[in-house]
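Predict the assembly for these two chains.
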Amino acid sequence: MDRAGIEKALRNAVNLAPEIPFDQIAAQSFIRMQEHDYITRQEPIKRVNPVRQLSFAAAMCLVIFLTVSGWYVRNKAVDSIITLDVNPSIEILTNRKDEILSVKAMNPDAQRIIGDKDYSHTRLNDTISMIINSLVENKYVNREKNAILLTVTNKNNRKADDLLTDMNIAIRDSLSVNNIEPLILSKTMNTKEANDKLAKKYDISRGKLQLIKDMIDFNHNLSLGKLAKLSVEQLLILARENNMDLSKYLKRNGGEGMPSVTEKPDYDIEKFKNKTSNDANEKSERKDNNDVKNRDSRKELDEKDHSKIRKQEDRDNEDDSKNKDNKKEKQKNKNKNIEIKNAETEETDMYSEKEETKEADMYPENAETNEIEKESKDTDNKNTLTSRDEDNSGSIGEDDEDSSDSIIIENDADGYNHEDLEGDTKIDQGKDSNESDTHHNY
Amino acid sequence: MLLFIMVTGEDNPNPYKYKKIEIDEAVFHKIADNDMEAFGELYQITQKSVYSFALSILKNHEDAMDVLQETYIKIRGAAHLYRPMGKPLAWVFTITRNLAMSKIRTRGRTSPIPEEVMEDDLAFSYVTDKDDKLVLQASLKILDTEERMIILLHAISGFKHREIADNLGLSLGTVLSKYHRGLNKLRKYLKEQEVQ
């Protein structure tokens, strides 16, 4: 039986019930009441106030919204952004409880490190340890290559600072297993400093971008596009060579139990200084030799072209006997430096080959000096430039074809090639006024 | 005309169309002035609703008839005390409910009527149709008081759920849920009893 059938049956049944005639009701005696009793009292009718009802609904919506948003802020909203750079650039997003929300690879190297691992809902320290171990396994970090850039972005500067300290400790703990003493460049950042759009353009993290911006502030001739392709270690070498003050990045490296960068530099600054002075002399001696100085054009030459150039160099050198004498003296000095380099400690050995390459990359003038040096020693002149190019491409990075290009753009009128890379961005010097970290314990 | 009935579908011969009950609150002042015509009209309009309401509480025809009679005597005695509040029928139902509860307390009928008593109850002998009688008895047997009130008022007096909610002081959501729950109970019970 359906609803209508039930109602019909009830209606039929009740309608058949005998009724009391109205006359009988009317004939009943009644007492005119003086006041209501409990039977007849009129109960106040509950009137629903629409305003009150709306207010209640709005309050309920607000409570639900606050509950949901509170849960979201605690669990799903990004609270801290941690960047870890060696050459791989990795960005770690955490929630307010320092649980991992996501781990992003900012470049192909980082993708190799992260792989397909799911880091979500793991603790930050564990994730850092896993990433550091992976960096060591993939030989991005070892005893020689120990520079790591670490930045933390958080609205709360105090929390960012605490987190940065924790991450420093976590990295050192992870690397201590492999007897690696890292050189950690660490810095807190505020959200105003972050320029993720620019960082994404160059496939680097916001932390590395900040470091590069700081370096460019010291030397406006540096090119963002070129620096973005260098590893943190290479950036550090360049910074030391240019006497850039990166003390704010090295605060935590000068603490107890940590190697003091000031007392024991990880890189031979003097070596770069010598190179700089040699470069200056070389520049003055070879002002009229523009073809040789341009490495990009030289890369495109075949071996015949190279030999022609070298012949031209020889002719020029013969014409200028004084300059040649000076060159020989400097070559001797250079040889001495090379010998000293070979005798240097393990640390110096590590850099000897690489820095030679970097030297060539960063200073085409130096490269040429070495080249001339090689020419004088090497009987097979034709192979010299080819082998050097191969070395360069291998030392800076296998995916970096332009790594052998000059990083410093000379602004003097010496005839050197001024790089004007497409997409390079000059950084405004005034942009860094918002720095949150004021550590200067270098 | 103090009391009027707006008949919806008056020209419609469909016997299942309900008459919408509308009572002018001034009727009580007329009754207080001993206007028997007004009292008579009120009685004719509301007696079935009052009876079914009393029956839903008392679950007994005789007691419901007693309460019906007492309700109109009370209305006559207290009509001059009535304060217009926009819901005249709600006052009538309030008197009916209070009288019914008073009768239950007086007779000690706090527990449902046993099933065997229901089956032998001759009070519903006036219902000739077996199925109709079974449905009525089932509603008294398996539904709780509020479910029964709502279903009977909706089925017999044609009150809309909103009107039932207003007159019984319940929320519309409560009325709707109890109505559907009660109907489902009845449907299930009647299906078990193989009532078509």
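DSSP finds nine helices and no strands in chain B. Chain B touches chain A through 60 residues (CB under 8 Å).
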